Amino acid sequence: MAGAPIPPRSGPLALLHTSPTHVPVFDALRDEAHPGLELRHLVDEELLARARREGPEAVAGDVRSLLAGAVADGARVVLCTCSTIGAVAERADAGVPVLRVDRPMAAAAVAAGPRVVVLATVASTLEPTVALVEEEARRAGRPVDVRTALVEDAWSLFEAGDTDGCARAVADAADAVTDADAIVLAQASMTAAQRFTTTSVPVLSSPRPGLAAAADAVRAAHAVHAG
Fold first, then answer.
1. Phi, psi at 3, each rounded to 5°
2. What is the average pLDDT across 187-198?
3. How much is the pLDDT for 8?
4. Bridge partners, residue 21, by sequence
5. What pLDDT is stored for residue 223 in this prediction?
6. Edge to edge, what strands does the sheet with 115-120 contain?
7. pLDDT mean across residues, the chain
């Protein structure tokens, strides 16, 4: 369902990706729910590779440079779609709002109940996602108990182009979860697993609510600029 209309000449939303596979996903979500929203995609796969090897802080300078370039090209808002480097991007002083795609998902998980399970296919994503869920719990004044699980071998399937195989592996891991109020799919690349899950526990992914939050931020930025 489409949100409020995007004002004409509202300025583009820049999306910072670490995989080119995210581009059509967010384009499709834009077409479905936010027609008129101009997207500019920035893809740098090396950011994730380095962050996995050396830690997210190792790419902070490169992230700042990419954000500065996006703003220089006219971006009013930036959405980081990579959960591993989301906190680094969010802290950057870019001069425009920088959102991480997984924050609305984390808030929804906390609202669902205190028992949250975080699934990831890349180990470097677990710590940042747990920290985000705990941060949202503190913000909401709610208790939370976060457990994590790494879906072994799913990332290698994704890298090999077997997106269905990756999605089914993640779905199997989600269906094996017990005693949880919400299951968080830590990476945007895991979203397709929702098609295959059979668990009654809510399985949450980040692209749709993350893009909606970014679209709202574009509208707000346009209103400030127009005023």
1. -85, -165
2. 95
3. 47
4. none
5. 74
6. 145-150, 115-120, 182-185, 203-204
7. 92
Average pLDDT over residues 96-111: 97
Taking a C-beta distance cutoff of 8 angstroms, is the pair 157, 165 a contact? yes
Q: Cβ of 72: how many Cβ atoms within 10 Å?
A: 9
Q: Which three-class secondary structure string do you get for 23-42?
A: HHHHHHHHHHHCCCCCEEEE
- Which of 18, 103, 100 minimizes the C-alpha distance to 59? 18
Kindly report the backbone phi and psi dihedral angles of residue 75, in degrees, each rounded to the nearest multiple of 5, phi listed first: -65, 135
Bridge partners, 115 (sequence order): 145
26-67 pLDDT, tens digit per residue, is: 999 999 999 999 999 999 999 999 999 999 999 999 999 999
User: Residue 13 has what pLDDT?
Assistant: 96
Measured CA to CA, the distance from residue 165 to residue 196 in angstroms comes to 11
Query: Quick one: tokens of 92?
Result: 């950057």
Question: What's the confidence (pLDDT) of residue 1?
Answer: 43
162: which residues sit within 8 A by CB, 6+ positions away? none
Burial 32-56 (b: 16+ CB within 10 A, else e): eebeebbbebbebeebbebbbeeeb
Q: Cα dihedral sign for 127, 131, 132, 133?
A: positive
Measure the CA–CA gap between 154 and 147, rounded to whole angstroms: 19
